[in-house]
Amino acid sequence: MRALLCSALLALSAASPVFAGNLLDLAVVDRDTGTTLRTYMSDGRLYVAGKPGHRYAVRMVNRTGGRLLAVLSVDGVNAVSGETANANQSGYVLGPWESTEINGWRKNLNEIAQFNFTALPDSYAAQTGRPMNVGV
What we know:
Helix content is 3%, strand content 39%. The protein is built from 1 helix and 12 strands, in the order ββββββββββββα.
């Protein structure tokens, strides 16, 4: 199985969609409007602009005929484990050509902390003691 680190960030992310090599399409979707957010490039990094208070999701599409492990982090927090992000952590396994939308950080098997555009003090990363990676 191939492994790929996919960082979707509060202010820094991939959208429109962006390709992670030939393996994965990654987009940020505004869940309140249903639109895919446009990508902006600055200093070699990709950004999206979201509306404050809006909920968003990260859409991932496996572009291969094989299984793919996508380790997704938002604001430096692993979306599956809730740990400070690291490429060697757990992630989402996508089957060949499969797609998924991730709406938030998994808190347990039944609950998520929704991804939303907010001020730093209100961010999930800051609320869990890791404000230094917001936007990463």
